[in-house]
Amino acid sequence: MTLSQLEPDMDNAPEDRAQAIRDTLRDAIADRRLTPGTKLSEAEVGALFDVSRTVVRSALQMLSFEGLVRTERNRGAFVSNPSPDEARQVFASRRLIEQGIVAAAVERITPEGIASLRAHLQEETRYQLERGPSARRAEIKASGDFHLLLASHAGNAILEKFMGELVARSSLVIALYGRSGISSCGHGDHSAILDALEARDGEKAHRLMMHHIDHIEADLDLRVKEGLALKEALAL
């Protein structure tokens, strides 16, 4: 569910609106439009979405449970600001989860699944050739979506859920520590992984995925990036 599906004058349940706000904020965090440390004022978020602070608080609690938002007593909520050690833990977790996803996908992926991933790679290529902030955000999202789409073909809903959380947390880490200012999720790596999956070469697919995650992590340093204000990041 998204905010666009919920009209302000509709008598939607508070939990539905909270979920929609959570989804919108989560997308902005994962797309790196909201960077680590950004303050998420209950009053400002409530005004932007025309909801009560109670509804906003519920949405922020959902994000806090996922590790994407932290709350500080007497200060409010902020986009999480992962430490270098937490960043290493995120990528260590990705290695564990994604090796399971690759192993399952090699066994379960169908020709239709391969075709859908090929189409996604074409979309990634298109974004790479475009210019401007919106194209860059789209490229970053498409890179993360490749991993989520691959997880959806592994046939394990629990792994897929974990992968969604890890991709979002990886976006936070990359936003804070990424040297190149892009997703650092190599399009060529994705293509090679998909070739191995199509050939049912599990060993090669596993090796390529581990190399790919190493490649992403190797692009990190400790420099902090400046982000957009809440209103501009959400384009409201």
Characteristic terms for this protein:
3-stranded antiparallel beta sheet; single chain; globular; mainly alpha; 236 residues; 10 helices; disordered N terminus
Structure description:
α4 packs antiparallel against α7 (157-177), α5 (111-129) runs antiparallel to α6 (133-152) and α6 packs antiparallel against α7. Helices cover 67% and strands 4% of the residues. The protein has 236 residues and is mainly α. It has 10 helices and 3 strands; from the N terminus they run αβααββααααααα. The longest helix is centred in the middle third of the chain and has 25 residues, at 84-108. The protein has a 3-stranded antiparallel beta sheet with strand order 1-3-2. It is globular and about 55 Å long. Residues 1-11 have low confidence and may be disordered. It has helices at residues 14-30, 42-49, 53-65, 84-108, 111-129, 133-152, 157-177, 187-198, 202-218, 230-234, and strands at 39-40, 69-72, 76-79. A hairpin with a 3-residue loop joins β2 and β3.
Question: What's this model, at a glance?
Answer:
The chain is mostly helical and 236 residues long. The chain is built from ten helices and three strands, in the order αβααββααααααα.
